[in-house]
Amino acid sequence: MCMDKLCCFNAAYSQLVGVRSSCGSGKGRNHQGPIKVTYGFSLIKGKANHPMEDYHVAKFVQVKGQELGLFAIFDGHLGDSVPAYLQKHLFSNILKEEEFWTHPDRSIKKAYETTDQAIISHSPDLGRGGSTAVTAILINGEKLWIANVGDSRGVLSKGGEARQMTTDHEPSTERGSIETRGGFVSNMPGDVPRVNGQLAVSRAFGDKSLKSHLSSEPDIDHADINHETELLILASDGLWKVMDNQEAVNLARKAKNPLSAAKQLTAEALNRDTCSYS
């Protein structure tokens, strides 16, 4: 998103965001509020030998006379049914909450929970897979709310300094809560910590077989957007496995616009042989 120098974009690459099995890119801008906001996104099929399982949202909408920027990355695993469901339903569920305009955090948390419950109840149709999610809602170009479940990440830059606004939900750091739920964390098979030896994230939508040991509660943060805000990067673990927050911000700040930045981040992630473990 962007006013003067403020940019927000979805960077998609490898196991990141996509629409069906397609790749591509796009851009857009807002039309309301004191801050001019532009965004760009890049979708690239990675080196995995299965179809693209990841979906995104990037758009501005008018709701009750207010302009909302809606941005998300849904990083699927074991199929694309759950991320496709999230793309279609998660934001609409958030905006249906009566408290959204007064308490966005409560509404986001509740909608994450009800959406996950709906996914589990439809699991025969949606399959056995799941998805991580990072969502960003920009209200009138001034208030930014970010939530995440899993290991995708949102990073904000002000004055060139990277600020991570999300928490990486990994089995190694949430071992206690997993064990309290009756599950376990194992590095077998392979050398990546996994919930019950299966999933390399400790929070996700779906995954019915693991749900009793797996949380879908989001971490939520917010920020005021002003002329000091430069950019926001939303990306899945494919970027963050090969690039730290500040490095990504530094690369993006050099780009001429959000679309160019997104393309450069995806290209660099692929150049560094990024991989995803979920």
TrEMBL record:
Key words, A-Z: Hydrolase, Magnesium, Manganese, Metal-binding, Protein phosphatase
Q: Which cofactor does it need?
A: Mg(2+); Mn(2+)
Q: Spans of biased composition, class Basic and acidic residues?
A: 166-178
- Reactions it catalyzes: O-phospho-L-threonyl-[protein] + H2O = L-threonyl-[protein] + phosphate; O-phospho-L-seryl-[protein] + H2O = L-seryl-[protein] + phosphate
EC number from the UniProt entry: 3.1.3.16
Specify where the region named Disordered lies, as residue ranges.
Answer: 157-190
Q: Where is the PPM-type phosphatase domain?
A: 38-278
Identify which top EC class this enzyme belongs to.
Answer: hydrolase
Q: Which PANTHER family match?
A: PROTEIN PHOSPHATASE (PTHR47992)
Name the record gives this protein:
protein-serine/threonine phosphatase
Q: What is the scientific name of the source organism?
A: Aristolochia fimbriata
Write the lineage as a comma-separated list. Eukaryota, Viridiplantae, Streptophyta, Embryophyta, Tracheophyta
